[in-house]
User: What shape does this take?
Amino acid sequence: MGHRVGVVLTPVPRQFYDRAVLDVARDLLGAVLESSQGGELVRIRLTEVEAYGGMADPASHAFRGPSPRNRTMFGPPGHAYVYFTYGMHFCMNLVTGAPGTAAAVLLRAGTVVDGVEVVARRRPGIRPRDFARGPARLTRALGVDLTADGADVCAAGGSLRVLPSVPVAEGAVRSGPRVGVTVATDVPWRFWVADDDSVSPYRAGGSRRRRGSTRV
DNA sequence: CCTTGGATGTACT
DNA sequence: GTACATCCAAGGG
Assistant: This one.
């Protein structure tokens, strides 16, 4: 399986991202994310994504307006918004819509279709099924960190690109509430491929029950 | 398979 | 101080 190395592929064009975020999210399922960080090629076929609606969406990092962290989301579509969270993880989005709208699609999971040996080296002891099963695992498989924030994924010679692929059949797309969010839990803005092992397990949001309130 | 708790830095109240 | 678009190890079934 996978794509032959050496074949020149044209990235998905910028206008693909200049549409309603829900449409972009759904259409990203099946697309192939390619990274050549550190001179090593990894390609991942996306199986799970989530839409974030920008300033109108209470769950979006853009809800409270622009900041140094989220500024990429307020820029043009077709760029990577990467953020650092939980003190140790990176997550990656693709910015959609016109500048100022700040909508984006979180890339939650996928299947490694090229560079399996590279990922295996980056993730010793991890089962192949889990290589990109979750947003922070996906960035780790790709070798993506904060230096990729703002990267243009439409650039022909870019080190981080999105390649077209066979779209996932309409009947194989599932949707439901987003994972780990505590607000706007009523909107089914998570999209995934039915019956795919690489899709991450659902977890409801809400801070986990607090431990004893006293310090030390 | 499930559940629980720890790790760890930054943004925000 | 608390939450956070998370992951991992350890323990039980």
User: Anything to note?
Assistant: Strands of chain A lie at 32-35, 42-52, 80-85, 89-96, 103-114, 160-163, 173-176, 190-193. Chain A has a mean pLDDT of 93. Chain A has three helices and eight strands.
